[in-house]
Design brief:
Distance between the termini: 25 Å
Strand order of the largest sheet: 8-7-6-5-4-3-10-9
Order of helices and strands: EEEHEHEHEHEHEHEHHEH
Oligomer: single chain
Bound molecules: 6-hydroxymethylpterin-diphosphate
Shape: globular
Low-confidence stretches: none
Strand content: 15-25%
Number of helices: 9
Largest sheet: 8 strands, parallel
Amino acid sequence: MIWRCRDLTYDLSGRVLVMGILNVTPDSFSDGGRWLEPAAALARAHELLAQGADILDVGAESTRPGSAPVPAEEQWRRLEPLLRALHRERPEVVVSCDTRDATVAERALAAGARIVNDVSALSDPRMAAVGAASGAGLVLMHMRGTPETMQTDTRYDDVVAEVTVHLAERSALAQAAGVAPEAIAWDPGIGFGKSAEGSLELLTRGIGPLRAASGRPVLVGASRKSFLARLTGGVGPSADRVPESLAAATIAVLQGASILRVHDVAETVKVVRVACAARDAGRQDTARA
Ligand code: HH2
């Protein structure tokens, strides 16, 4: 399975990509306020790359439950210095822009980004055209409602089926606007309008069906999220959820995820190596049987 991101084509048949999270926001749920200064953000970018991140996912708008939208101009004010510096210093680095806003995506692509990570799966009517014109990788994530409202009703009859139908609709919309099918990746949206049980169900039982329904790589973002703390009874800061996040990363790989969006890159890179080896050993056993 390939994933096309402008000039770059990933072969994800056996490989799992680690996407390092870099939020230039004052209020993201885990790293908010830490990388707001451009120099701090650039240093963090280099750190994540040195730890083995394949992709940097840069966002300027928190989408944690209850958060309000950030205007495009403010998002771009936060993003521009980092994206320009990165592109100047290391143009080969694969940058993903985490935004719901087509204007922000367009500017980020002009500044060298290769992927648009849209947690609203085309809520901006211009987003599909921006994706199509650039040939960028396009992550379509499931969310019911908006970050402000998404936790008010987290009941589903069948969460996996509903996510699949929604993403299939969004994919069709993207392709009708000219986005190449090979550019699209799907994301079940762990924690976005989901109960802890719903998030766990998507992680443990949703990835295979999403992959099969779309024929596209599945991205999973479970890192440090609160449903993990619910399982361990943890009440501490989100940065203390590293073991839980690594367990989720292992499950995601064994279930067939191709891209993991994480805060703890160095640890996840090691987990991915072990989980991929375990997955491949399992395949060899099946082939021999
Ligand atoms: N989760 C968050 C943000 N963007 N993108 C994708 N594709 N999948 C996700 O699961 C996902 C995402 C939320 O995490 P974070 O960026 O750490 O926090 P915040 O939204 O508060 O900035």
